[in-house]
Protein backbone atom coordinates (compact mmCIF):
# COMPACT_ATOMS: atom_id res chain seq x y z
CA UNK A 1 0.00 0.00 0.00
CA UNK A 2 2.75 2.41 0.86
CA UNK A 3 4.27 2.06 -2.63
CA UNK A 4 1.10 2.93 -4.50
CA UNK A 5 1.32 6.02 -6.73
CA UNK A 6 -1.61 7.64 -4.97
CA UNK A 7 0.07 7.54 -1.56
CA UNK A 8 3.38 8.76 -2.94
CA UNK A 9 1.63 11.71 -4.62
CA UNK A 10 -0.23 12.62 -1.45
CA UNK A 11 3.01 12.55 0.53
CA UNK A 12 4.70 14.71 -2.07
CA UNK A 13 1.81 17.20 -1.87
CA UNK A 14 2.10 17.50 1.87
CA UNK A 15 5.82 18.24 1.73
CA UNK A 16 5.68 20.90 -0.97
CA UNK A 17 6.46 24.42 0.35
CA UNK A 18 3.44 26.63 0.96
CA UNK A 19 2.80 29.22 -1.73
CA UNK A 20 3.87 32.75 -0.78
CA UNK A 21 1.21 34.86 0.89
CA UNK A 22 -0.16 37.88 -0.93
CA UNK A 23 1.65 41.04 0.14
CA UNK A 24 -1.30 42.52 2.04
CA UNK A 25 -1.80 39.38 4.15
CA UNK A 26 1.93 39.13 4.80
CA UNK A 27 2.02 42.75 5.99
CA UNK A 28 -0.84 42.08 8.39
CA UNK A 29 0.99 39.01 9.72
CA UNK A 30 4.20 41.03 10.07
CA UNK A 31 2.33 43.72 12.02
CA UNK A 32 0.60 41.42 14.49
CA UNK A 33 1.97 39.05 17.10
CA UNK A 34 3.21 35.75 15.60
CA UNK A 35 0.46 33.26 14.70
CA UNK A 36 -2.28 35.56 16.03
CA UNK A 37 -4.01 36.66 12.80
CA UNK A 38 -7.44 35.10 12.23
CA UNK A 39 -8.87 36.07 8.88
CA UNK A 40 -12.61 36.58 8.37
CA UNK A 41 -14.53 36.28 5.10
CA UNK A 42 -11.46 34.92 3.30
CA UNK A 43 -13.63 33.26 0.63
CA UNK A 44 -15.79 36.28 -0.11
CA UNK A 45 -15.97 37.30 -3.78
CA UNK A 46 -17.51 40.25 -5.56
CA UNK A 47 -20.80 39.72 -7.37
CA UNK A 48 -20.42 42.31 -10.12
CA UNK A 49 -21.29 40.97 -13.60
CA UNK A 50 -20.69 44.14 -15.63
CA UNK A 51 -17.79 45.31 -17.81
CA UNK A 52 -15.84 42.07 -17.63
CA UNK A 53 -15.68 42.02 -13.83
CA UNK A 54 -17.39 38.62 -13.65
CA UNK A 55 -14.31 36.99 -15.17
CA UNK A 56 -11.97 38.55 -12.63
CA UNK A 57 -12.44 37.13 -9.18
CA UNK A 58 -10.17 36.12 -6.34
CA UNK A 59 -10.88 34.71 -2.90
CA UNK A 60 -11.23 37.60 -0.47
CA UNK A 61 -11.85 40.06 -3.33
CA UNK A 62 -8.53 41.81 -2.80
CA UNK A 63 -8.91 42.71 0.85
CA UNK A 64 -8.01 40.77 3.99
CA UNK A 65 -9.95 41.44 7.18
CA UNK A 66 -9.80 39.85 10.58
CA UNK A 67 -8.43 40.12 14.07
CA UNK A 68 -5.31 39.30 16.05
CA UNK A 69 -3.17 40.62 18.86
CA UNK A 70 -0.55 43.33 18.94
CA UNK A 71 1.78 43.12 21.94
CA UNK A 72 -0.85 40.87 23.45
CA UNK A 73 -3.72 43.34 22.91
CA UNK A 74 -6.67 42.32 20.70
CA UNK A 75 -7.14 44.44 17.57
CA UNK A 76 -9.13 44.23 14.35
CA UNK A 77 -7.31 44.83 11.10
CA UNK A 78 -7.85 45.05 7.36
CA UNK A 79 -5.54 45.51 4.40
CA UNK A 80 -5.98 46.08 0.65
CA UNK A 81 -4.34 44.04 -2.07
CA UNK A 82 -3.12 46.78 -4.39
CA UNK A 83 -2.33 44.25 -7.12
CA UNK A 84 -5.95 43.09 -7.64
CA UNK A 85 -7.95 45.54 -9.75
CA UNK A 86 -5.72 48.31 -8.42
CA UNK A 87 -6.90 47.66 -4.90
CA UNK A 88 -10.23 49.18 -5.92
CA UNK A 89 -12.85 49.12 -3.20
CA UNK A 90 -15.94 47.05 -3.96
CA UNK A 91 -19.29 46.51 -2.29
CA UNK A 92 -17.81 43.36 -0.73
CA UNK A 93 -14.90 45.42 0.61
CA UNK A 94 -17.38 47.67 2.36
CA UNK A 95 -19.26 44.71 3.84
CA UNK A 96 -16.03 43.15 5.11
CA UNK A 97 -14.67 46.39 6.57
CA UNK A 98 -18.05 47.17 8.11
CA UNK A 99 -18.06 43.79 9.81
CA UNK A 100 -14.72 44.33 11.56
CA UNK A 101 -15.76 47.85 12.54
CA UNK A 102 -18.88 46.38 14.13
CA UNK A 103 -16.70 43.90 16.01
CA UNK A 104 -14.44 46.74 17.20
CA UNK A 105 -17.42 48.71 18.48
CA UNK A 106 -18.94 45.69 20.23
CA UNK A 107 -15.70 44.58 21.87
CA UNK A 108 -13.89 47.88 22.33
CA UNK A 109 -10.69 47.04 20.45
CA UNK A 110 -8.51 49.27 18.22
CA UNK A 111 -8.80 49.31 14.43
CA UNK A 112 -5.73 49.19 12.18
CA UNK A 113 -6.05 49.64 8.42
CA UNK A 114 -3.40 49.01 5.75
CA UNK A 115 -4.60 51.16 2.87
CA UNK A 116 -3.75 50.80 -0.81
CA UNK A 117 -6.78 51.49 -3.00
CA UNK A 118 -7.36 53.21 -6.32
CA UNK A 119 -10.80 54.24 -5.12
CA UNK A 120 -14.31 52.87 -5.30
CA UNK A 121 -14.59 50.15 -7.94
CA UNK A 122 -15.97 51.85 -11.03
CA UNK A 123 -17.30 48.57 -12.45
CA UNK A 124 -19.84 48.48 -9.61
CA UNK A 125 -20.99 52.09 -9.77
CA UNK A 126 -23.49 53.01 -7.10
CA UNK A 127 -23.38 49.54 -5.52
CA UNK A 128 -19.91 50.23 -4.11
CA UNK A 129 -20.62 53.91 -3.55
CA UNK A 130 -23.75 53.29 -1.50
CA UNK A 131 -22.26 50.48 0.56
CA UNK A 132 -19.21 52.55 1.49
CA UNK A 133 -21.44 55.18 3.05
CA UNK A 134 -21.93 52.63 5.84
CA UNK A 135 -18.14 52.33 6.28
CA UNK A 136 -17.80 56.10 6.62
CA UNK A 137 -20.65 56.17 9.12
CA UNK A 138 -19.22 53.37 11.24
CA UNK A 139 -15.75 54.94 11.17
CA UNK A 140 -17.22 58.15 12.53
CA UNK A 141 -19.21 56.20 15.14
CA UNK A 142 -15.97 54.57 16.27
CA UNK A 143 -14.15 57.91 16.45
CA UNK A 144 -13.27 58.68 20.05
CA UNK A 145 -14.48 55.23 21.12
CA UNK A 146 -11.62 53.00 19.91
CA UNK A 147 -8.25 54.10 18.50
CA UNK A 148 -8.15 53.98 14.70
CA UNK A 149 -4.81 53.96 12.88
CA UNK A 150 -4.45 54.13 9.08
CA UNK A 151 -1.22 53.07 7.36
CA UNK A 152 -0.99 54.28 3.75
CA UNK A 153 1.11 51.80 1.76
CA UNK A 154 0.44 53.01 -1.76
CA UNK A 155 -2.07 55.17 -3.61
CA UNK A 156 -5.29 55.88 -1.76
CA UNK A 157 -7.59 57.73 -4.11
CA UNK A 158 -11.06 59.24 -4.28
CA UNK A 159 -13.63 57.69 -1.99
CA UNK A 160 -10.98 55.39 -0.54
CA UNK A 161 -9.15 58.45 0.84
CA UNK A 162 -12.07 59.45 3.04
CA UNK A 163 -11.82 56.51 5.43
CA UNK A 164 -8.25 57.19 6.60
CA UNK A 165 -9.05 60.91 6.79
CA UNK A 166 -11.75 60.05 9.35
CA UNK A 167 -9.41 58.04 11.60
CA UNK A 168 -7.25 59.17 14.52
CA UNK A 169 -3.84 58.74 12.90
CA UNK A 170 -2.45 58.50 9.38
CA UNK A 171 1.03 57.07 8.76
CA UNK A 172 2.46 57.64 5.27
CA UNK A 173 5.57 56.23 3.57
CA UNK A 174 7.75 58.79 1.82
CA UNK A 175 7.79 58.44 -1.99
CA UNK A 176 5.40 55.48 -1.77
CA UNK A 177 2.15 56.73 -0.24
CA UNK A 178 -0.32 59.12 -1.84
CA UNK A 179 -3.68 60.46 -0.70
CA UNK A 180 -5.81 62.52 -3.09
CA UNK A 181 -9.37 62.81 -4.38
CA UNK A 182 -8.68 63.50 -8.06
CA UNK A 183 -5.54 62.18 -9.75
CA UNK A 184 -3.16 63.86 -12.19
CA UNK A 185 -5.00 62.59 -15.27
CA UNK A 186 -8.36 63.94 -14.09
CA UNK A 187 -6.84 67.26 -13.10
CA UNK A 188 -5.13 67.54 -16.48
CA UNK A 189 -8.41 66.94 -18.32
CA UNK A 190 -10.40 69.29 -16.11
CA UNK A 191 -8.00 72.20 -15.71
CA UNK A 192 -5.07 71.61 -18.06
CA UNK A 193 -2.77 71.64 -15.04
CA UNK A 194 0.13 69.18 -15.22
CA UNK A 195 0.84 67.77 -11.75
CA UNK A 196 2.36 64.67 -10.17
CA UNK A 197 0.98 62.43 -7.44
CA UNK A 198 3.62 63.71 -5.04
CA UNK A 199 2.58 67.31 -5.68
CA UNK A 200 -1.10 66.74 -4.96
CA UNK A 201 -1.04 63.97 -2.38
CA UNK A 202 2.43 62.75 -1.49
CA UNK A 203 3.51 61.92 2.02
CA UNK A 204 5.74 64.97 2.42
CA UNK A 205 2.92 67.27 1.29
CA UNK A 206 0.45 65.87 3.81
CA UNK A 207 3.01 65.68 6.62
CA UNK A 208 4.33 69.23 6.21
CA UNK A 209 1.66 71.34 4.49
CA UNK A 210 -1.86 69.97 4.90
CA UNK A 211 -1.33 68.23 8.24
CA UNK A 212 -3.40 65.26 7.07
CA UNK A 213 -0.53 62.83 7.77
CA UNK A 214 0.54 62.54 11.40
CA UNK A 215 3.72 60.59 10.65
CA UNK A 216 6.02 60.25 7.64
CA UNK A 217 8.36 57.25 7.54
CA UNK A 218 10.85 55.82 5.06
CA UNK A 219 9.53 52.28 4.57
CA UNK A 220 6.57 49.99 5.07
CA UNK A 221 8.46 48.10 7.77
CA UNK A 222 9.03 51.35 9.64
CA UNK A 223 5.32 52.14 9.35
CA UNK A 224 4.40 48.80 10.92
CA UNK A 225 6.92 49.27 13.75
CA UNK A 226 5.64 52.80 14.39
CA UNK A 227 2.07 51.48 14.62
CA UNK A 228 3.09 49.13 17.41
CA UNK A 229 4.85 51.97 19.25
CA UNK A 230 1.95 54.38 18.79
CA UNK A 231 -0.62 51.92 20.12
CA UNK A 232 1.48 51.39 23.26
CA UNK A 233 0.49 54.89 24.42
CA UNK A 234 -3.24 54.45 23.78
CA UNK A 235 -5.93 52.58 25.69
CA UNK A 236 -8.04 49.84 24.13
CA UNK A 237 -11.03 52.18 24.11
CA UNK A 238 -12.46 55.29 25.73
CA UNK A 239 -13.53 53.44 28.89
CA UNK A 240 -10.11 51.91 29.63
CA UNK A 241 -7.15 53.58 31.31
CA UNK A 242 -4.11 54.35 29.14
CA UNK A 243 -1.31 51.80 29.45
CA UNK A 244 1.10 52.12 32.38
CA UNK A 245 4.56 50.76 31.61
CA UNK A 246 6.95 50.15 34.49
CA UNK A 247 10.65 49.65 33.91
CA UNK A 248 14.06 51.27 34.30
CA UNK A 249 13.10 54.23 32.09
CA UNK A 250 10.17 55.12 34.35
CA UNK A 251 12.46 55.22 37.41
CA UNK A 252 14.97 57.75 36.01
CA UNK A 253 15.88 60.65 38.22
CA UNK A 254 15.64 64.29 37.14
CA UNK A 255 18.80 65.82 35.80
CA UNK A 256 20.14 69.33 36.40
CA UNK A 257 20.54 69.57 32.61
CA UNK A 258 16.88 70.65 32.45
CA UNK A 259 17.84 74.00 33.96
CA UNK A 260 20.53 74.62 31.35
CA UNK A 261 18.16 74.00 28.44
CA UNK A 262 15.95 77.05 29.06
CA UNK A 263 17.79 80.36 28.45
CA UNK A 264 17.13 83.16 30.92
CA UNK A 265 16.77 85.65 28.06
CA UNK A 266 13.13 85.63 26.98
CA UNK A 267 13.79 86.05 23.26
CA UNK A 268 16.53 83.48 22.73
CA UNK A 269 15.41 80.36 20.84
CA UNK A 270 15.87 76.90 22.31
CA UNK A 271 14.81 73.37 21.38
CA UNK A 272 11.79 72.43 23.48
CA UNK A 273 12.02 68.77 22.45
CA UNK A 274 15.36 68.55 24.26
CA UNK A 275 13.67 69.91 27.36
CA UNK A 276 10.90 67.31 27.07
CA UNK A 277 13.46 64.53 26.68
CA UNK A 278 15.14 65.86 29.81
CA UNK A 279 12.30 65.11 32.22
CA UNK A 280 10.04 62.41 30.71
CA UNK A 281 10.81 58.70 30.95
CA UNK A 282 13.91 57.90 28.94
CA UNK A 283 13.35 57.78 25.16
CA UNK A 284 9.59 57.83 25.64
CA UNK A 285 8.65 60.97 23.71
CA UNK A 286 6.82 60.22 20.44
CA UNK A 287 6.19 63.39 18.46
CA UNK A 288 3.03 63.67 16.37
CA UNK A 289 2.77 65.97 13.34
CA UNK A 290 6.51 66.65 13.57
CA UNK A 291 6.71 68.39 10.17
CA UNK A 292 3.48 70.39 10.35
CA UNK A 293 3.10 73.73 12.20
CA UNK A 294 6.50 73.36 13.79
CA UNK A 295 6.00 76.38 16.07
CA UNK A 296 4.09 74.03 18.37
CA UNK A 297 5.11 70.51 19.40
CA UNK A 298 2.62 67.79 20.29
CA UNK A 299 3.18 64.16 21.15
CA UNK A 300 2.97 61.34 23.64
CA UNK A 301 5.37 60.53 26.45
CA UNK A 302 5.51 58.67 29.75
CA UNK A 303 6.03 60.08 33.21
CA UNK A 304 6.79 57.42 35.77
CA UNK A 305 5.36 54.90 33.32
CA UNK A 306 2.10 56.83 32.81
CA UNK A 307 1.07 57.80 29.26
CA UNK A 308 0.43 61.52 28.82
CA UNK A 309 -0.03 63.97 25.97
CA UNK A 310 2.25 67.00 25.68
CA UNK A 311 1.63 70.33 23.97
CA UNK A 312 4.58 72.74 23.90
CA UNK A 313 5.43 76.00 22.20
CA UNK A 314 8.59 75.70 20.10
CA UNK A 315 10.74 78.83 20.59
CA UNK A 316 13.09 77.79 17.79
CA UNK A 317 10.31 78.12 15.15
CA UNK A 318 8.45 81.43 14.70
CA UNK A 319 9.46 82.18 18.32
CA UNK A 320 6.76 79.75 19.45
CA UNK A 321 3.92 82.06 18.35
CA UNK A 322 0.49 80.57 17.88
CA UNK A 323 -0.89 80.80 14.36
CA UNK A 324 -3.73 79.14 12.46
CA UNK A 325 -1.97 75.86 11.73
CA UNK A 326 -0.47 75.57 15.22
CA UNK A 327 -3.85 76.24 16.83
CA UNK A 328 -5.60 73.66 14.66
CA UNK A 329 -2.87 71.07 15.25
CA UNK A 330 -2.88 71.52 19.03
CA UNK A 331 -6.68 71.61 19.25
CA UNK A 332 -7.06 68.27 17.50
CA UNK A 333 -4.39 66.71 19.69
CA UNK A 334 -5.99 67.95 22.92
CA UNK A 335 -9.36 66.59 21.80
CA UNK A 336 -7.78 63.22 20.96
CA UNK A 337 -6.15 63.04 24.40
CA UNK A 338 -9.46 63.95 26.01
CA UNK A 339 -11.32 61.30 24.01
CA UNK A 340 -9.00 58.54 25.23
CA UNK A 341 -8.37 59.72 28.76
CA UNK A 342 -4.75 60.84 28.44
CA UNK A 343 -3.67 63.64 30.79
CA UNK A 344 -2.38 66.76 29.05
CA UNK A 345 0.79 68.65 29.98
CA UNK A 346 1.23 72.07 28.37
CA UNK A 347 4.64 73.75 28.30
CA UNK A 348 4.02 77.44 27.68
CA UNK A 349 6.61 79.76 26.16
CA UNK A 350 4.58 82.02 23.92
CA UNK A 351 4.89 85.68 22.91
CA UNK A 352 1.32 85.69 21.61
CA UNK A 353 -0.42 85.08 18.30
CA UNK A 354 1.49 85.56 15.05
CA UNK A 355 0.64 89.07 13.79
CA UNK A 356 -0.07 89.88 10.17
CA UNK A 357 -2.74 90.54 7.57
CA UNK A 358 -2.64 87.01 6.15
CA UNK A 359 -3.34 85.45 9.53
CA UNK A 360 -6.19 87.82 10.31
CA UNK A 361 -7.81 87.40 6.90
CA UNK A 362 -7.52 83.61 7.15
CA UNK A 363 -9.38 83.67 10.50
CA UNK A 364 -6.73 83.28 13.18
CA UNK A 365 -9.42 84.28 15.68
CA UNK A 366 -11.51 81.25 14.75
CA UNK A 367 -8.49 78.94 14.89
CA UNK A 368 -7.52 80.29 18.30
CA UNK A 369 -11.09 79.82 19.47
CA UNK A 370 -10.92 76.16 18.45
CA UNK A 371 -7.82 75.68 20.59
CA UNK A 372 -9.34 77.47 23.57
CA UNK A 373 -12.53 75.46 23.08
CA UNK A 374 -10.57 72.19 23.07
CA UNK A 375 -8.82 73.00 26.34
CA UNK A 376 -11.98 74.26 28.04
CA UNK A 377 -14.03 71.27 26.90
CA UNK A 378 -11.42 68.64 27.85
CA UNK A 379 -12.12 66.91 31.15
CA UNK A 380 -8.86 64.96 31.52
CA UNK A 381 -6.21 66.11 34.03
CA UNK A 382 -4.45 69.21 32.70
CA UNK A 383 -1.27 70.79 34.03
CA UNK A 384 0.50 73.80 32.51
CA UNK A 385 4.05 75.02 33.16
CA UNK A 386 5.12 78.49 32.02
CA UNK A 387 8.75 78.14 31.00
CA UNK A 388 9.74 81.77 30.31
CA UNK A 389 6.80 83.83 29.10
CA UNK A 390 3.05 83.70 28.52
CA UNK A 391 1.75 86.86 26.90
CA UNK A 392 -1.56 88.09 25.58
CA UNK A 393 -4.49 85.95 24.54
CA UNK A 394 -2.23 82.95 24.05
CA UNK A 395 -1.91 82.58 27.84
CA UNK A 396 -5.59 82.03 28.70
CA UNK A 397 -5.79 79.78 25.64
CA UNK A 398 -2.99 77.41 26.63
CA UNK A 399 -3.32 77.77 30.41
CA UNK A 400 -6.90 78.83 31.03
CA UNK A 401 -7.31 79.32 34.78
CA UNK A 402 -10.76 77.74 34.91
CA UNK A 403 -9.96 74.88 32.53
CA UNK A 404 -6.48 73.96 33.78
CA UNK A 405 -6.25 71.99 37.01
CA UNK A 406 -2.79 73.19 38.04
CA UNK A 407 -0.53 75.93 36.65
CA UNK A 408 3.11 76.35 37.60
CA UNK A 409 6.00 78.48 36.34
CA UNK A 410 9.76 78.24 36.32
CA UNK A 411 11.62 80.96 38.25
CA UNK A 412 12.00 84.14 36.22
CA UNK A 413 8.98 83.44 34.02
CA UNK A 414 6.66 86.26 32.99
CA UNK A 415 2.87 86.16 32.66
CA UNK A 416 1.19 89.27 31.32
CA UNK A 417 -1.28 90.71 28.89
CA UNK A 418 1.77 91.96 26.98
CA UNK A 419 5.53 91.75 27.30
CA UNK A 420 6.91 94.47 29.60
CA UNK A 421 8.77 96.12 26.71
CA UNK A 422 5.66 96.41 24.57
CA UNK A 423 3.47 97.48 27.47
CA UNK A 424 5.82 100.28 28.47
CA UNK A 425 6.06 101.52 24.88
CA UNK A 426 2.26 101.82 24.79
CA UNK A 427 1.63 103.26 28.26
CA UNK A 428 4.63 105.55 28.61
CA UNK A 429 5.34 106.61 25.05
CA UNK A 430 5.16 110.34 25.82
CA UNK A 431 6.95 110.00 29.16
CA UNK A 432 9.90 108.23 27.49
CA UNK A 433 10.08 110.74 24.64
CA UNK A 434 10.27 113.66 27.12
CA UNK A 435 12.98 112.12 29.32
CA UNK A 436 16.54 113.45 29.33
CA UNK A 437 17.79 109.89 28.81
CA UNK A 438 14.92 108.07 26.99
CA UNK A 439 16.62 104.67 27.01
CA UNK A 440 17.42 104.78 30.73
CA UNK A 441 13.88 105.92 31.48
CA UNK A 442 12.46 103.12 29.33
CA UNK A 443 14.61 100.48 31.04
CA UNK A 444 13.47 101.67 34.47
CA UNK A 445 9.80 101.60 33.46
CA UNK A 446 10.17 98.12 31.97
CA UNK A 447 11.55 96.79 35.24
CA UNK A 448 8.80 98.55 37.19
CA UNK A 449 6.13 97.01 34.96
CA UNK A 450 7.75 93.57 35.23
CA UNK A 451 7.68 93.67 39.01
CA UNK A 452 4.20 95.21 39.18
CA UNK A 453 2.37 92.86 36.84
CA UNK A 454 4.45 90.57 34.64
CA UNK A 455 6.52 88.41 36.98
CA UNK A 456 5.36 84.86 37.73
CA UNK A 457 6.00 85.68 41.40
CA UNK A 458 3.24 88.27 41.18
CA UNK A 459 0.83 85.72 39.68
CA UNK A 460 1.78 83.25 42.43
CA UNK A 461 1.12 85.86 45.11
CA UNK A 462 -2.34 86.43 43.66
CA UNK A 463 -3.02 82.65 43.40
CA UNK A 464 -3.32 82.93 39.62
CA UNK A 465 -0.81 80.08 39.49
CA UNK A 466 -0.03 77.38 42.04
CA UNK A 467 3.60 78.40 42.47
CA UNK A 468 7.12 78.20 41.10
CA UNK A 469 8.96 74.98 40.29
CA UNK A 470 12.72 74.65 40.25
CA UNK A 471 13.80 72.94 37.01
CA UNK A 472 15.31 69.99 38.86
CA UNK A 473 11.96 69.48 40.61
CA UNK A 474 9.99 69.43 37.39
CA UNK A 475 9.82 65.68 36.77
CA UNK A 476 8.95 64.63 40.32
CA UNK A 477 6.44 67.45 40.74
CA UNK A 478 4.64 66.52 37.52
CA UNK A 479 4.50 62.83 38.46
CA UNK A 480 3.08 63.68 41.89
CA UNK A 481 0.51 66.15 40.60
CA UNK A 482 -0.71 63.91 37.79
CA UNK A 483 -1.06 61.12 40.37
CA UNK A 484 -3.26 63.46 42.42
CA UNK A 485 -5.45 64.16 39.39
CA UNK A 486 -5.70 60.61 38.06
CA UNK A 487 -9.22 60.08 39.43
CA UNK A 488 -10.46 63.54 38.49
CA UNK A 489 -14.23 63.89 38.21
CA UNK A 490 -15.30 66.26 35.48
CA UNK A 491 -18.56 67.47 36.98
CA UNK A 492 -19.74 68.91 33.67
CA UNK A 493 -23.49 69.21 33.11
CA UNK A 494 -25.02 66.69 30.72
CA UNK A 495 -25.51 67.89 27.15
CA UNK A 496 -25.51 66.49 23.65
CA UNK A 497 -22.25 68.22 22.66
CA UNK A 498 -20.68 71.64 22.52
CA UNK A 499 -20.50 73.92 19.49
CA UNK A 500 -17.48 75.48 17.81
CA UNK A 501 -16.77 77.93 14.99
CA UNK A 502 -16.20 76.64 11.48
Automatic annotation (TrEMBL):
- Highest taxon of source: Bacteria
SUPFAM superfamilies reported in the protein's UniProt record: ClpP/crotonase
* MF annotations from Gene Ontology: propionyl-CoA carboxylase activity; transferase activity
Q: Where is the CoA carboxyltransferase N-terminal domain?
A: 1-246
The entry's cellular-component GO terms read: acetyl-CoA carboxylase complex
Swiss-Prot/TrEMBL keywords: Transferase
Residue intervals of the CoA carboxyltransferase C-terminal domain: 244-502
Q: Where are the transmembrane segments?
A: none
InterPro entries hit by this protein: AccD/PCCB, AcCoA_carboxyl_beta, ClpP/crotonase-like_dom_sf, COA_CT_C, COA_CT_N
Record PANTHER family: PROPIONYL-COA CARBOXYLASE BETA CHAIN, PROPIONYL-COA CARBOXYLASE BETA CHAIN, MITOCHONDRIAL
Q: Under what name is this protein listed? A: Acetyl-CoA carboxylase, carboxyltransferase component
Which organism does this sequence originate in? Pseudomonas japonica
Amino acid sequence: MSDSPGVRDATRERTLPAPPLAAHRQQIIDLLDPHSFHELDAQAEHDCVHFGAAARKVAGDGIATGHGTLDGRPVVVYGHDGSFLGGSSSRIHALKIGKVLDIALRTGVPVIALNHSSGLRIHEGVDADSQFSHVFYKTVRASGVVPQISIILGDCIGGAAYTPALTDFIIMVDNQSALFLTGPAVIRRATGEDVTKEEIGGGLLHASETGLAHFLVDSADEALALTRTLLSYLPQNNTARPPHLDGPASQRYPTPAVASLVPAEKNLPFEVRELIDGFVDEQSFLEVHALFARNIVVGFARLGGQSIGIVANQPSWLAGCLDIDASTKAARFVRLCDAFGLPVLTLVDVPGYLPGRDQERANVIGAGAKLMHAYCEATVPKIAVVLRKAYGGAYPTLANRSATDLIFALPGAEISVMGPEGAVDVIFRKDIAAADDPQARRNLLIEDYRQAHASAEYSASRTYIEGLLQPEQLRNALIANFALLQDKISGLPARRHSNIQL
